[in-house]
Amino acid sequence: MRHVPVLLKEVADGLNVRAGGKYIDATFGAGGHSAEIKRRGGQVLTIDADPNALADVTANFSDIEKIASVHGWSDVDGILFDLGVSSMQLDTPERGFSYRFAGPLDLRFDQSKGNPASETINTYSEGDLYEIFSRFGEEDSARALARTIVRARAVEKITTTEKLVEVVGNSAPLLSRIFQALRIEVNDELGALKDGLAGAKAILRRRGRLVVISFHSLDDRIVKQFMRSLDWNVLTKKPVTAHTDEVKANPRARSAKLRIAERL
């Protein structure tokens, strides 16, 4: 499936792109948002944790302040974080991001770093699995789910997406929450987001714009609380969401929430 950037116009408008301005796309993906920034005359430094994204810099955006310094991009005019998973990642079976495809249970943004999700599933204690599913997946049946997995892995290791589906059942909502929880844990997404936002504040110029798209409540809560500090003028009292036509054309946009703040 071709990746379609969500809230494209809203992002570019939110960044207040001006000709010659300096912008950082911290989650380059397929480059749709960056292309629009360039079309409006902006310069873009692109970052992505996934080597397959072909960004200028392959790194986690948690290091955005250091990356900007190395490339001489201090006092930038705008920074974009488009959180979550791209269609390219979801639709590549060997990455293990989706329960819809048979493949290794991996879920890492960069497969050369850290441990795959199969390591989490097969080595974490029942209590730790409960914490992950409850906190990161916001799953009501987290305790029973953790117990089921521990019993199943004692018989046979769970190393593939199809084996995990076999163990927990084929309920799409449940599987979505499980895979989300594992992905957040494996990539330390919430910790990276907090570090990335702090780094963004350090390199944005006065009146520079911070634009963040989140796809679940955990990310959105962190962004909302971060923008509440006295360092920001929040320009979106409520998050911007996709119009009906965009959701019809791109179902991924349904859960997108965009927040914009200006550096004081």
Structure at a glance:
By secondary structure, the protein is of the alpha/beta class. The chain has helices at residues 8-15, 32-39, 64-70, 87-90, 117-123, 126-135, 142-155, 161-168, 172-187, 189-203, 217-227, 244-249; strands at residues 22-25, 43-48, 57-58, 76-82, 204-214, 232-234, 257-263. The protein folds into two domains: 8-82 and 189-263, Vaccinia Virus protein VP39 (Rossmann fold); 89-187, DNA polymerase, domain 1, CATH 1.10.150.
Task: Write up this protein.
With 264 residues, the chain is of the alpha/beta class. The protein has two domains: 8-82 and 189-263, Rossmann fold (3-Layer(aba) Sandwich), CATH 3.40.50.150; 89-187, Putative methyltransferase TM0872, insert domain (DNA polymerase, domain 1, Orthogonal Bundle), CATH 1.10.150.170. The chain is 43% helix and 15% strand. A seven-stranded mixed beta sheet has the order 3-2-1-4-5-7-6, with helices on both faces. The chain is elongated, with a radius of gyration of 19 Å. The N and C termini lie far apart (40 Å).
